[in-house]
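Hi Y.,

Following your request, here is the sequence exactly as I used it, all 403 residues.
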Amino acid sequence: MRTQVTLREYESVTVDLADTELRGLLAADGSKALAVSPVGGGQFRLTANSLVGTVVTPHLSVLIRPKVALENVFLMLGVSVPSFLRSQFLYATDGGLLPAMAAVFADVVDRATVQGVLHGYRSVEERLVAPRGRVDLVEQLRRPSTPIPAACRFDDYTTDILLNRGILSAISRLSRVPALSPQLRERLARVRARFGDVSPAVVRAEQLDRWRPTRLDGHYESAVRLASVVLRNLTLRDQAGAGSAASFTIDMNSVFQAFVLDRLQRVLVGRIRVVGEPSVPLSSTGSRIMSPDLVFERESSVVLVGDAKYKLSTGQARIGDYYQLLAYTTVMELDEGVLVYCQDSDDEPEHSLAVRNSGKTLWTYRLPMAGTVAQVEGQIRTLGEWVTDRTAARPLQGSTVGS
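Below is the corresponding structure, written out as tokens. Let me know if you'd prefer a different format.
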């Protein structure tokens, strides 16, 4: 039977850990999500950071809960509300992000492939007795004395394409996670059977991230996004015959930043261009580069710069964040900048700070993330209107930046 420990991100708990539990935890997590420090008497203090998720070993299960509602975590990951609601009971009973992720992923893949697995064209290079497509003259001339089989290049219309390989790879990895319920394993096996003609392959999350949906394959978007999350964040380890261990953790800092950028780009389209992490030279020689999270452009001129911070805040921002934003506004010759913080209360969202002897105003905008999905989406639109109002009458100052 596994010992279960539950804590929230940035929270610390003191627990009793046997040697086997401690060794398994350190091997499975690799100090990514938890800092482990001894306090004496066989007790250890576990301290979580911005990573949330589940670490499962043969003897221990550690659940790190997010400070916002789980449905909003899945919203930030690009999952629609119905998919989450159908699997929400798993989080209520198990309390872990990993089984919830497996259930939501199985549901998303099921809906994306219910009418069949996506087909696409894949370039093939093969030697064939009956030529097909184009003859590869360069390859053919390498063996001039063997005209048959001929080196051919052609496009094959098949299910064995990158997107399906990535989804299959994610399903396979989730299926190996210890402590998943038999019902959940059955759901994963059922959707996996639809990919019988897809070749097992090693697919990196970065390959899926480069894909952009079109009218023909847009129904795959949620499935591909979650496959990328699984491939990037789920680690499996065998612990010297003691059993399998798994670590599935998500960095909420990165998730929140990507979510704010994506949603602002959508709500401001046609009005203001939003660029994420452009390269901005700090020094006059260009030897030092900064990358602000958010740069807002109007008529090819920068009108506002911002950073997204997954931090609960009321009132003023952290002094270090002010320093960072002040550097951005100074280098980019802007009068104002904004820190977009995460917020779980009903406090006033805006706070401004006028920097002495500089003429610059640094804003803190606290984005509420504790409501329903519809409320969060509404708050994003409100933030978009705030950005529009702040920049509407501002003289065009900085030049455009690269995306």
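The CA atoms of residues 281 and 348 lie 34 Å apart.

Thanks again,
Q.
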